[in-house]
Amino acid sequence: MPETISIDKLRTDVRGRVIGPDDPGYDEARTPFYGGIDRRPAVIVRVADDADVARVIAIARETGLELAVRSGGHSIPGYSVSDGGIVLDLADMRAIDIDADGRTAWAETGLTAVEFANAAHEHGLALGFGDTGSVGIGGITTGGGVGYLARKYGLTIDDMLAADVVTADGEVRRVDAENEPDLFWAIRGGGGNFGVATRFHFRLHDLPSVVGGMLLLPATAQTIAGFVAQAEAAPEEFSTIANVTKAPPMPFLPEEAHGKLVIMALVCFAGDAEEGERVLAPFRALAQPIADMVRPIPYPEIYPPEEEGYHPTAIAHNMFVEAIGVPEAETTLEHVQSSTAMMGVAQFRVLGGAVARVPNDATAYAHRDRSIMVNLAALYAEPEEAETHLPWLRGFVDALRQDDAAYVNFLADEGRGRIRAAYPGATWDRLCEIKARYDPTNLFRLNQNIPPAEDRAA
Ligand SMILES: Cc1cc2nc3c(=O)[nH]c(=O)nc-3n(C[C@H](O)[C@H](O)[C@H](O)COP(=O)(O)OP(=O)(O)OC[C@H]3O[C@@H](n4cnc5c(N)ncnc54)[C@H](O)[C@@H]3O)c2cc1C
Question: Considering the entire predicted model, what is its pTM?
Answer without folding.
Answer: 0.97
